[in-house]
Predict the structure of DNA-binding transcriptional regulator, AcrR family.
Amino acid sequence: MGSGYPGAMGHREDLLAGAKRCLEEKGWSRTTARDIVAASGANLASIGYHYGSKDALMREALFAAMGDWADDVQRSLEVDDPAGGDQDTALRERFETRWTRVLELFGKHQAMWQSQLEAILQVRHDPELRAAFGRAQPEGRQGLVGLIHGIDERDVDEETSRVMGSFYMTLVSGMIVQMAIDPELMPGAHDLVEAMRRIVGDVPAGPDALPAPDAPASPAG
């Protein structure tokens, strides 16, 4: 079945790739439709045909670039979990190891994160962009839990996604801001673990390490 548009085959993908390239080279605010056309080899009319508008294309390109970062992190995290020690220690070591790799890839994808920060600052005046970020939140939370805990994100339950995923997303957001100001200000994974230890006395092992509801409470003393 024909596309109904001359040269349409491949234009959608070319436009998306071109928009992602513009996000990396020019950022969210400075990219124009003509920039995307120049980067993609397509034409202005094809933006409207395939995406409806330049803004819609930019939104899709931004979230696609964020997906590329997650894929890059996932590939880099294909290592064995820390072995030995008690559960609390294993979780701390896993967090520190995996978050260190996440931070390493922040630098590689720095331009994308800066574009995301620019976009976030526009959501107050762009309801469609705000809605797009809102729709992406649940999947983003699940994905971060999967990355940090070394599990399939499809196995992350709603409560864990809400609690732990929101926490990790807050860490990521803070890192984006600090990186935009000065990458040297970004704390390392060990510093984050130490901060959590000082706040709560130790890093909790999570719901799966808590006693069952019917288990007797430990005697005080």
Summary: Confidence is low (pLDDT under 50) at residues 1-7, 203-221.
